[in-house]
Amino acid sequence: MLSVVELRRLMAEWRIRWQRVRDVVAPPVWAESDWRRFSQGVALLVIDHGQSWIIDPNTYWDMRWKLQGGGELIAQVEYIPQQKTTLIVAQQGGFTTGVVDSYTWLWAEFDMEGNFLRDPYWVDGTWKEALTMLLLPFQKQAGFYLEAPTQTPKELLLQEGARPNENATPRLDWKQG
Predict the structure, then answer these.
(1) 39, 126: one domain
(2) Which residues lie closer than 8 Å to 164 by C-beta, 6 or more apart?
(3) 3-class DSSP assignment, residue 70
(4) Do 14 and 48 belong together in one domain?
(5) Looking at residue 141, what is its pLDDT?
(6) pTM to 2 decimals?
């Protein structure tokens, strides 16, 4: 016989599971301000933890993860001093194999204050939840979609005119807010 407490626990667990199913079937829609905060968070994650190089005067960062379904999720940031910061999240391999070289999930360009310079391009998908989990410090292990981080290809770091970036963090006014 189940106790009242045990019955409530089971009901609460199933309520959460049902909510997750509903969110997968009909994901909540993000407003542009939500995408801006998310994009800024991903850009700062890549700047803080990604590989970096400079091709004067621009600075680049690259961060990659293996995907459980095959391929890689790639996040790259380009910083053009006193002009803009661009974030691109794309996938190579997996469902793109043999069809296209890569699939762009997110493209966002920010001015120096962190506002969108143009309308961002995004495709809703599980990649968003996976990166959201990485942005939440206590839930990093919940990256169900991501398998493991991978290295930035050496070809990017060895491009003509590229040199190592020793001071990897640009001054971004929107980083404080």
Answers:
(1) yes
(2) 52, 53, 54, 157
(3) coil
(4) no
(5) 47
(6) 0.66
